Amino acid sequence: MLKGHGGDIYGLARELGCRPEDILDFSSNCSPLPYPDGFHSFIMEHLHQLHWLPEVDSHSIRLLLSEIYNLPPEAFLMGNGTTEWIFSIPLLAEMKQAVIPLPTYSDYIDAARLAGLKTVTVPAFPVSESLDNKEPLQMELLNSLDRAISPGSLVYLCNPNNPTGQFVAPSPLMELISSHPDSIFVVDESYAQFVGDDHETSLITHEVRDNLIVLRSFSKIYGIPGLRVGSIVGRGDIFSRLEQQARPWSVNRMAQLALHFLLGHPDLVKVTREFCQQERNYLIKEITAMDGIAPIQAATHFFLAKVSLPDKSGAESSRILAERLRTKGILIRDCSNFIGLDKGYIRISPNIREANNILLKQMQKTIVELRS
User: Fold this and answer.
1) How many CA atoms lie within 13 A of 114 on its CB side?
2) DSSP secondary structure string, 74-133?
3) Beta-bridge mates of residue 351
4) Cβ-contact 86, 215 below 8 angstroms
5) What's this model's pTM, rounded to 2 decimal places?
6) pLDDT tens-place string over residues 356-370
7) Which domains does the chain have, with CATH numbers?
């Protein structure tokens, strides 16, 4: 089983002998907001549907997405989170190699290697003092990818990227995709809605080309990672093969019902984005004032921070800080296992203000302890 991701509140709760809900999680990049009014009563009203099989292909959800994005329902496939598609695509794509810019989400490399693909990694996400959607960084990334791609490549691109938070605008990215028609691009937009509206951030509001598959996660923006539901958008031969191989009932009925409700509240995305951006800015401002931790502004709600704290054992500062906070029931992401990222970084995703203040207080206390 693949491990090493954020959000393991269950494991930490077992360590500390407490309840999972007692853990403060800043590691999973999901919306921390409560569900909108009426959500719980809607779920309870339809709870009897657990007696039934779910829609075999989530047809009603595909119809809703079709109306929202003005695409045919056949352009959408639903699955058990985007993870299902990340691992399915390289098995069916029949490509020669996978091209993956680093540092990025580790499942892309894992999926390519499990499929037996040669993996070409590109150090395309340089970390600097600010990663807040800067055009030179965008062009540096695209140029690095352009040089690495050859015919028959399967290109994974997280946009905006995890863990760095860098974002590439749709137009120049579409130019790169168009210039390599013999390669397949898998663009993961799990965090795009935290950056801006779909027409500003998503490729699915542009032409969906035959060599493009867009991954869309509902876990992050709606805060429903426990339901495991995601979609892909595309067309063409590889998309048809994915549709033919899709598993029946891959999305459970509770997930279908939750999406039916949440997609019917379009203002929720904007409210969530604005809240998370506000709390990100608050955290960055407060952490910047701390000695030994340097946060890096990014396009996303989550952000990296470079940790430089003294420790007699010689251990990495990021790991020491993360471990100290774990003992207090607080999860941040130690990024030392991200391939291609220098050591000493943590990643933080904002929570509600009360929780954020607890994090700040415990971070400052830990810094004082280590420096004394």
Assistant:
1) 15
2) GGEEEESSHHHHHHHHHHHS--SEEEEESS--THHHHHHHHTT-EEEEE------SEESS
3) none
4) yes
5) 0.91
6) 999 999 999 998 888
7) 9-30+268-371 (3.90.1150.10), 39-263 (3.40.640.10)
